[in-house]
Design a protein that fits this description.
The protein is mostly helical and 111 residues long. The chain has one domain (25-109). Helices cover 82% and strands 0% of the residues. The chain has helices at residues 3-20, 26-50, 54-78, 84-106. Helix 2 (26-50) runs antiparallel to helix 3. It is flat, with a radius of gyration of 17 Å.
Length: 111
């Protein structure tokens, strides 16, 4: 294995270990998880739209909505500060607006 690939794999293992052990803040952890899921939604959703597989696209979109709701439930369960309602409303609004924008981008493959 060449050095750049080995260094990346090593870095990734260190970051995942830190994430698992709670070394990052709540916001950083959940944003990283959201960006990962949104990236998968964009990649696979775009491919499904490009191939005209609309049923698969709706399944992927439903999966992304469920994933987003699980993340929001996780934020609610792990937030220990004041004004939980404010954190929940802002987080859910931003996640859902971003989902809409990513969904529009995936539909950009319709000619």
């Amino acid at each position: 294995m060449n050095a750049p690939v080995y260094n990346f794999i090593n870095w990734l293992q260190v970051m995942l270990t830190k994430l698992k052990n709670g070394k990052f803040g709540l916001a950083s952890s959940y944003w990283a998880a959201y960006v990962f899921g949104a990236s998968l939604f964009f990649i696979f959703g775009s491919r499904a739209v490009d191939n005209g597989q609309w049923l698969l696209y709706f399944v992927i979109m439903t999966g992304m909505m469920i994933y987003t709701m699980l993340l929001i439930i996780g934020v609610r369960a792990n937030y220990k500060g004041r004004q939980l309602w404010k954190v929940m409303s802002r987080t859910s609004s931003v996640f859902m607006i971003t989902n809409i924008l990513v969904g529009i981008c995936t539909l950009g493959f319709v000619y």
